[in-house]
Design goal:
By secondary structure, this protein is of the alpha/beta class. 41% of the residues lie in helices and 11% in strands.
């Protein structure tokens, strides 16, 4: 289970929250990207001065560049940014010169919890050394369909028991060394042969199958204390069979039945819930930008990944104004 905050930590949270205006609280929901080598930083700086976002996502750069830029950026907010990156295969793909591990499928083939732990530990130590606090890993998806383009080599395999055993070792290695882990992509990619970057994918497992396959790996991650979970643009008809007038199922990112009722309610997850990239076709093809920006928060997601600023911030402010009227 997720470790409860100490009295000192809880007091800091309460003081910080009490000092935030409503609009600052709204800004805390947002995680914009800085791009590779901080190519978007200059564009972001004037926006960050007036929109106190909760986190920043960074791409590949040298260790020196990460430290320099994150050090400068962290001087801006009153509440420090949570800095996120994709460290699925260790830090080497994001921190130049860091350790580069093979794709998770190779880790699954090795089937060694100790090696998996060491990979998580290395990602944590090398990521934290440059200012990264949070990784969108490990991947909890199961390779039900070998033709799935997302899970594929990013999954630990097709055996839920093995995946659970290894992803727990990875996230323990991460979190025991100060890096917040994030199980993804709930409610489970890897079942159909579609790519959620372009279209809403569908996990077509029955409820019983889902609990034994996709749901099992996430349940293992949650039981081990995963601090966060990423919601995918993935439909789960067994829990939410509704279709729109086009015949399309509702992607999980904007689906309260999956985020609040299933994830929070039935599974009891108490950590942070972050969306996947809200510009991906899997959700952008289902709803327009204004609708999906509000819908993901109403569904129960805590943070929105890759907002368009200042547009999405203003959309959420307007939605809050309407609620208050």
């Amino acid at each position: 289970m997720i470790r409860p905050l100490t009295a000192e930590e809880q007091a800091w949270v309460e003081r910080a929250l009490a000092g935030l205006s409503r609009d600052a609280c709204i800004a805390q929901l947002l995680i914009p990207t800085l791009g590779s080598d901080y190519e978007l930083a200059d564009t972001m700086l004037p926006l960050l001065d007036r929109i106190p976002v909760g986190g920043l996502f960074t791409g590949h750069a040298t260790a020196e560049r990460h430290r320099e830029m994150l050090g400068r950026l962290q001087e801006i907010p009153e509440i420090p940014y949570v800095v996120a990156a994709d460290l699925e295969c260790g830090a080497g793909h994001i921190v130049q010169g860091g350790t580069m591990f093979p794709d998770p499928l190779a880790v699954g083939a090795a089937d060694d919890p100790d090696l998996s732990y060491q990979m998580g530990k290395a990602a944590a130590l090398e990521g934290r050394s440059v200012g990264i606090h949070w990784t969108y890993a490990p991947v909890a998806d199961v390779n039900v369909n070998p033709d799935n383009p997302i899970a594929n080599t990013r999954s630990l395999g097709d055996d839920p028991a093995r995946i659970g055993r290894l992803l727990v070792a990875i996230l323990r290695g991460m979190q025991e060394h100060g890096l917040a882990a994030c199980a993804k992509h709930f409610p489970g990619d890897g079942v159909d042969d579609m790519d959620q970057h372009t279209v809403t994918t569908v996990n077509s497992l029955s409820r019983a199958q889902w609990k034994a396959i996709s749901g099992r790996t996430f349940a293992d991650a949650f039981a081990a204390g995963a601090w966060s979970v990423m919601i995918g643009h993935i439909a789960l008809p067994a829990w939410s069979p509704e279709r729109d007038r086009r015949g399309a199922y509702i992607p999980a990112t904007v689906n309260r039945r999956l985020v609040t009722d299933l994830l929070r309610g039935e599974m009891g997850f108490e950590g942070l819930v972050v969306t996947d990239d809200m510009n991906m076709g899997g959700v952008a093809g289902y709803m327009n930008r204004r609708e999906r920006t509000v819908a993901c928060i109403n569904a129960g997601c805590d943070m929105l990944l890759f907002p368009r600023l200042p547009d999405d911030y203003e959309t959420l402010r307007a939605a809050a104004d309407e609620e208050e009227e």
